[in-house]
Write a structure and sequence with these properties.
The complex is a heterodimer of chains A (about 110) and B (about 120). With about 110 residues, chain A is mostly beta strands. Chain A is built from no helices and eleven strands. In chain A, a hairpin with a 4-residue loop joins strand 9 and strand 10. Chain A is globular, with a radius of gyration of 13 Å. Chain B has about 120 residues and is mostly beta strands. In chain B, the strands form two sheets. In chain B, strands 2, 4, 5, 6, 9, 10 and 11 form a seven-stranded mixed beta sheet that branches. Chain B has a four-stranded antiparallel beta sheet with strand order 1-3-8-7, with no helix packed on it. Classes of the chains: A mainly beta (about 110), B mainly beta (about 120). At the A-B interface, strand 4, strand 5, strand 6 and strand 9 of A face strand 5 and strand 9 of B.
Chain lengths: ~110, ~120
């Protein structure tokens, strides 16, 4: 099965919120009861960087305008107020089955 | 701080074997649930997961890439390796190594290495 990200392109206005969705047809809850769903950011010309793990836990140094939610088969990354440094491509990754989303390009409208 | 550095040839001929090394330096990884991972990104395209090797044991590979990839780690756990056999032009990409942990705020990436397959 696959991870389906949407939208694939997201034009945004700086200062406005943004949301990216990841969906799969299979239940992503691991046998230990934890959902290993992570979100990554890749700014232009840079290496990827993880933002969130276990759906909603922020990695070190990640601004609190980034948040994650969801369960079972549907997950969302939200940016409360988009800043210029947030532009780039975002990926979701499920760590039990190692499913990587196609990526969502966040760009200025 | 943990630092990762990929190394290897920048140019490989078709049908040859590509060998990449990721060297981990700096602070020690303070968990035992972490993994070493490899990703790649073809020119102008999205990120592709290649495989991951857990410190505690267990290796996972992207089944869509068939079985041309092999991952390993050295005894000191400071270097991990990726080999890709029978390369073609479709393997041209930036290759990234990662050390991550799904149970803690542990995630580090190398800067990536450009690999071009061409005769």
């Amino acid at each position: 099965f696959v991870m389906t990200q949407s939208p694939l392109s997201l034009p945004v206005t700086l200062g406005q919120p943004a949301s990216i969705s990841c969906r799969t047809s299979q239940d992503l809850v691991n046998t230990d009861g934890i959902t290993y769903l992570s979100w990554y950011q890749q700014r232009p010309g840079q290496s990827p960087r993880r933002l969130l793990y276990q759906v909603s836990k922020r990695d070190s140094g990640v601004p609190d305008r980034f948040s994650g939610s969801g369960s079972v088969t549907e997950f969302t990354l939200r940016i409360s107020r988009v800043e210029a440094e947030d532009l780039g491509v975002y990926y979701c990754l499920q760590g039990t089955y190692w499913l990587l989303g196609q990526g969502t390009r966040l760009e200025i409208k | 701080q943990v630092h990762l550095q990929e190394s290897g040839p920048g140019l490989v001929k078709p049908s040859e074997t590509l060998s990449l090394t990721c060297t981990v330096s700096g602070d020690s990884i303070r968990t035992t649930s972490f993994y070493w991972g490899w990703f790649r990104q073809p020119p102008g395209r999205g990120l592709e997961w290649i495989g991951s090797l857990y410190y505690s044991g267990g290796a996972f590979y992207n089944s869509s890439l068939k079985s041309r990839f092999t991952m390993s780690v050295d005894a000191s756990k400071t270097q991990f390796f990726l080999t890709l056999s029978s390369v073609t032009a479709a393997d041209t990409a930036v290759y990234y190594c990662e050390v991550g942990d799904f149970w803690s705020a542990t995630d580090y990436w190398g800067r990536g290495i450009q690999v071009t397959v061409s005769s």
